[in-house]
Amino acid sequence: MKVKSIFSLSLLLPFAMIFIYVWYTSAEVPFRDDMYLIKGGFIESYCKGTLTFADLWRPSASARILGYALIQLANIKLFGMKSRMIVMLIPLLMLGSAVLIYLDYRKSLLGRLSPQFIAATFVLLSLTIFNLVLWEGLTFSYGFVFQSPMPFFIAGFISMQLFLAKGEAKYWPAAFILPVLAILIFGGTHSFSFAPALSATLICYILTRRNSLSKEFWLRVVIIGLFLAMLAFLYMYRIHYNDYFPNSSGHHLDKALDNPSGVVQFLLAAFGASVVGVNAANIYFSFHSMVVLGFCVIIIYCLCGYLFFASKLYERTYLPFYLMMQTLFYLIFMMIARFDYGIDYGMASRYTCVSVYGLAGIIWVIIFFLANSEDLKPRWRVLLYVPIVMIFSGIFLTAIVEWRIQPYRKAYYQNIKDIALRVDTATVEELSKFQEKPTLVRQSLMILRDCHLNVYGPSSVDRN
């Protein structure tokens, strides 16, 4: 009972802080990218009675968002498209990720540390996951696209790890069902980094266990490899056809190759922004300071990669290694796709939806190494506390800044709600506050009004 109480506090207190932030801040109306899904998208097709699966499968900026489309469709049918209904799901998805990580975290440390200590130290990982550096994916409904993939990818990775390692029949269903949910349903842009992160982790597994691999293991590798290749084919087939954002489907690799210095700065700033959120960075740091911070973060990643092998954590789990690899490849793919927008674009809050899990993996590795290094000299032990202090200094600074901004952000979302309720007379300047083309915003809001959805539903209108 004591262990459960400590774990509940370690998990639920950070969760509660994020939930409260989302509850008091989130937008009640569609915002930004949602506008493309209304006018000319699957929501307009639904209102006209012409909705097909092709509308739901339609790519958005070269990524499938079927899961979000299905959730939004259910929201329309059950709740009249209340945006906050979807936003409030996001902390619950993050909670699912945290629980999955805890199960592996606990398993990796049992026998080395007491259950009470394991449950207590998990608060460090929880605070990293429930982190206001993610604010952009916590305040409006399209943020679901950024945040929803991780619990499914973590569950998919764990299931495939068990399938490859053990091969027992009970592991087969999850190993084939969860990757489908992760890649085809909820994957979004995360799907592009899943394959290389999984491949890097598989190579790590093979190298660390090369003397004990059976023929059955290699057969399972072939089976799961073919299965994932099939999922990749389904995901990528005609990925650019009828894209909501056709101009964003082209990657900017050629421009990146012409500017290697810019590429390095872009990536370093993105890694730095996983520790200090972009708003806090704009207030307290210069861009070059964020590049230096990102360089320090990269060094910590390299150090923890070494510690992962030195401590033989791989004998218990590969999940922290996978989380670090997922972060690395996600930021690389994001850089390729967004490099043309400027070398500071990778600092955007929405791109921290993966990198916070990489930080959780780092803290996990450090805790495991310290738990297995009783003879470590005090000065080296203290040195390993430095990354944790740096990470949480950034997290707390970001939290302070975001809570200071919160009233203004809440007022901003209330303002655009008021604008939506008088869409006919709203000016171009007012409609631009939805951060999309004013003409598209007006047309989208009128579709919702005609269909009595969102703030135009009977209950919403009555309240106003």
Would you give an account of this structure?
This protein has 464 residues and is mainly alpha-helical. It has two domains: 40-75 and 81-410, no CATH class; 422-463, no CATH class. The protein is 71% helix and 0% strand. Helix 10 packs antiparallel against helix 13 (215-236) and helix 15 packs across helix 17. The longest helix is centred in the C-terminal third of the chain and has 44 residues, at 378-421. It is globular, with a radius of gyration of 23 Å. The protein starts with a helix and ends with a helix. The mean pLDDT is 92.
Keywords:
mainly alpha; single chain; 464 residues; 2 domains; 23 helices; 71% helix
Helix and strand arrangement:
Elements: H1 2-25, H2 34-38, H3 42-48, H4 53-57, H5 66-79, H6 83-87, H7 89-109, H8 115-129, H9 143-147, H10 149-166, H11 172-185, H12 190-208, H13 215-236, H14 253-257, H15 260-273, H16 278-284, H17 287-310, H18 319-338, H19 352-371, H20 378-421, H21 428-431, H22 438-450, H23 458-463
Helix pairs in contact: 1-7, 1-8, 7-8, 7-10, 8-19, 10-11, 10-12, 10-13, 11-13, 12-18, 15-17, 16-20, 17-19, 18-19, 19-20
